[in-house]
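Quick question, first post here. What does this chain look like in 3D?
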Amino acid sequence: MTAESAQESRPASTCAVPGAVLDGPVSHAISRVARLHRIAAGRLLRDLGLHPGQEFLMMHLWDSGAVRQSELIKALGLDPSTVTKMLQRLEQAGHVRRSPDPLDRRASLVEATEASCGLLIEVRRAWGELERQTLDGLDTAERAELARLLGKVETGLCAEVTRGGAECDAGAGYKGPVDACG
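> Answer (accepted):
Ran it through. Tokens below.
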């Protein structure tokens, strides 16, 4: 059999799966979907002047009010230098304000500014559009089933992550803005 005839006898696939992931096809699919979701989110956020990930930082501040920078780093699960860079950019854009913590002058408090209220509205719209794009083609029952299954997957992964010593906020729902836009 020649290489050409071997290729012809293989079924055509819309997405080639690397051999190394044959024991993890669902994990591979989730990884691909997560990558595409992040790209789509990035496009929507770019129109708002945000980089992917910055919206999660802002969501935390809108929900929590002023928090220590160290708490923000922990909540986001990111490297401190990454959060510092994000805060610098958001501060320059007028969306966050940092100030010394009155209880511990060595620590910084971070809070969303009143000017970020417009951004909150735009982030909500962007996430609504992302939701529409993500679920396009699924009917109501399929959407509910996908949400249910993803919740179960998240719970299982969260349990595994916490066994490794990391923190996890599986099932943490949106509580709404606290201070800046309340």
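The mean pLDDT is 86.
The chain has seven helices and three strands.
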